[in-house]
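lol forgot to send this yesterday, sorry. struct tokens for the thing we talked abt
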């Protein structure tokens, strides 16, 4: 086991062991004090339902119903825990794997699949959910998120001490930390005290490239080079994810500037359904991390304190199956939208150039019909 480099588990903030035993953390325990048994059951429930949806989406891709799918298998605790720490006044910029965060923001999970079926760039209203559309270009959204955070600050939505104060959370993977856009975003955020939390889901592989080929030290240490406070935590521990993210958001909302979080987790599935993970990782590693399954961990804890019944487990699995059926039926019922919708959301307000292009495109499409009529 790595004891110094980017795979080191030493010094991780952890509040729940992999066998489901509670650990008190002096620094972050106060930020998890409001997590009663009911809330923890709700987190476990959402993680369970999320995994069922994730597996169904993988099956749909294998059946040719989706062009691609990006699994979140094994990263449920990092996403659900951090999602529960958000306020409605916060805004999220996801990459393309944040299905669990989407769930906590009220996005209907089947709608995510419109992107992966090639029908839309995004099927939800970002303003209504405080959750931006997915970004497929690795790391590019970090700059957008930083600009949004700077605008929140200039609009007086930060540092007032009111419940309406907000912050931005920008999610990306370990591979994105090697991208120029992410590093530029950290520069802008730091020098402008932007209210943003950079949330790195370090699942240990940038597609097939291990973290050890991207950094010689834990990724969280990169924050120091930008003057950004950083915390590294066990991303398979939903309690730690909630507590650390809540702390980071309070820092950002208060106006003290950005924070960098590294959720050290493991991608139990493939990078995408076009990937073969067996070619670059070992069975021993997979077995090691299977024992640290984030859902099994919180389930063991809840069972141990007598707060999770067999009936509740059956109900959650039944709900996951029902969501799977609804997802499958929805995906198979979708048809491509009119091609003219590509012009609908280019700008927020009417734009003459776009309207001119829309009119040209309509004439272009009609030209094929007219030719067929005269054939």
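and heres what i got for the seq, position by position
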């Amino acid at each position: 086991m790595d004891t110094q480099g980017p795979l080191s588990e030493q010094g991780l903030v952890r509040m729940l062991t992999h066998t489901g035993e509670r650990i008190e953390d002096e620094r972050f325990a106060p930020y998890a004090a409001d997590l009663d048994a009911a809330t923890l059951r709700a987190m476990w429930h959402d993680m369970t339902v999320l995994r069922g949806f994730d597996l169904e989406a993988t099956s749909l891709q294998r059946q040719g119903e989706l062009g691609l799918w990006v699994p979140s298998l094994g990263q449920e605790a990092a996403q659900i825990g951090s999602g529960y720490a958000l306020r409605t006044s916060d805004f999220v910029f996801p990459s393309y794997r944040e299905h669990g965060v989407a769930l906590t923001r009220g996005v209907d999970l089947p709608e995510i699949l419109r992107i992966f079926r090639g029908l839309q760039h995004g099927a939800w209203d970002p303003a209504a959910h405080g959750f931006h559309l997915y970004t497929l270009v690795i790391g590019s959204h970090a700059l957008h998120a930083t600009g949004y955070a700077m605008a929140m600050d200039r609009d007086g939505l930060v540092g007032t001490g009111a419940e309406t104060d907000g912050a931005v959370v920008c999610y990306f993977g370990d591979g994105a930390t090697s991208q120029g856009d992410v590093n530029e975003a950290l520069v802008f955020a730091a020098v402008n005290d932007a209210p943003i939390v950079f949330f790195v889901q370090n699942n240990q592989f940038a597609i097939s490239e291990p973290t050890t080929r991207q950094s010689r030290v834990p990724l969280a240490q990169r924050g120091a080079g930008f003057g950004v406070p950083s915390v590294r935590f066990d991303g398979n521990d939903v309690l730690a994810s909630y507590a650390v993210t809540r702390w980071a958001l309070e820092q950002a909302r208060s106006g003290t500037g950005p924070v960098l979080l590294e959720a050290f987790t493991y991608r139990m599935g493939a990078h995408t359904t076009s990937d073969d993970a067996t070619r670059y990782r070992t069975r021993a590693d997979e077995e090691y991390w299977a024992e640290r399954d984030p859902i099994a961990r919180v389930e063991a804890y809840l069972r141990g304190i007598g707060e999770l019944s067999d009936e509740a487990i059956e109900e959650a699995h039944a709900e996951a199956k029902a969501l799977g059926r609804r997802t499958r039926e929805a995906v198979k019922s979708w048809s491509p939208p009119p091609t003219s919708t590509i012009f609908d959301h280019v700008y927020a307000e009417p734009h003459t150039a776009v309207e001119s292009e829309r009119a040209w495109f309509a004439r272009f499409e009609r030209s094929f019909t007219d030719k067929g009529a005269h054939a």
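The chain has a mean pLDDT of 95. anyway ping me if u want another try
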